[in-house]
Amino acid sequence: MKKRIVIKIGSNVLTRQDGKLDVTRMSALVDQVAWLRKQDIEVILVSSGAVACGRRELTVDHSLDSVEQRQLFSAVGQVKLVGLYYDLFREFGIHVGQVLTMKENFQPGEQYRNQQACMAVMLENDVLPIVNENDTVSVTELMFTDNDELSGLIAQMMEADTLILLSNIDGIFTTHPDDPTAELIREVAPGRDLSEYIQPEKSAFGRGGMHSKYTTASKVSQAGIRVIIANGERENILTDLIERPEDTPHTEFLPKTE
């Protein structure tokens, strides 16, 4: 049976310092996902970046509130983002499909089953699902906390073996990563409390931060799925996590077993 991995790529991984999309890094990650598929691993991609894409596409000469900005920039940016993924994956002969979802789709019932069936049939037909929140209609209380939460729900829905959360730091440290005494926590046993080590900062271009990654990783590992937090800015991070994990900085949450 094929292994199944959900990979979440955060906004900070996909954007440069000026907030524009980092197409070079995006291309490198696509190369690595193509390599994973050659190893007979099924991949579901949860990708941020739509709002950042849209913000750089449009110049708006009047004020918009935060909801209007999110709706406008995500609507324009999602087209550009998926178009880029389409072109990059096509070089490898890989078909991609877009899944835009909302929090209510994860309540038990028909919508949940429909979404699950849609992604299952995509995987059965060798189509790579690219998932994002439907920001054009999801506002305030209807929104996911961020794409960390979304990727965790997708991993559980699709019974993935592993969830990889790609951030712009190597994982969870014993103190702030900039502190020279900081040590990377390599392995987290089920149920271990790391809250004392979690910094409250949000990410620069996304809604998340290490707190949301920790919360998601704790929940998903309790559901029996391995979770890895790693640095998506490192070259060959995905291939290295598979081929030489012991030499690759990351934090791994071990899955709870029955």
Please characterize this protein's 3D structure.
The two termini are 21 Å apart. The chain is globular, with a radius of gyration of 18 Å. It has a single domain, classed as 3-Layer(aba) Sandwich (Carbamate kinase). It has an eight-stranded mixed beta sheet, sandwiched between helices. Helices cover 38% and strands 17% of the residues. The model is unreliable at 202-208 (pLDDT under 50). The protein has eight helices and eight strands; from the N terminus they run E-H-H-E-H-H-E-H-E-H-E-E-H-E-H-E. Helix 2 packs across helix 4 (66-90). The protein has 258 residues and is α/β, with parallel strands linked by helices.
**Unreliably modeled segments:** 202-208
Radius of gyration: 18 Å
What is the distance, rounded to the nearest whole angstrom, between the alpha carbons of the first and last residues? 21 Å
Strand order of the largest sheet: 3-4-2-1-5-7-8-6
Helix content: 25-40%
Structural class: alpha/beta
Q: Given this structure, which CATH class is correct?
A: Alpha Beta
Predict the CATH topology. Carbamate kinase
Give the overall form: globular
Average pLDDT level: 88
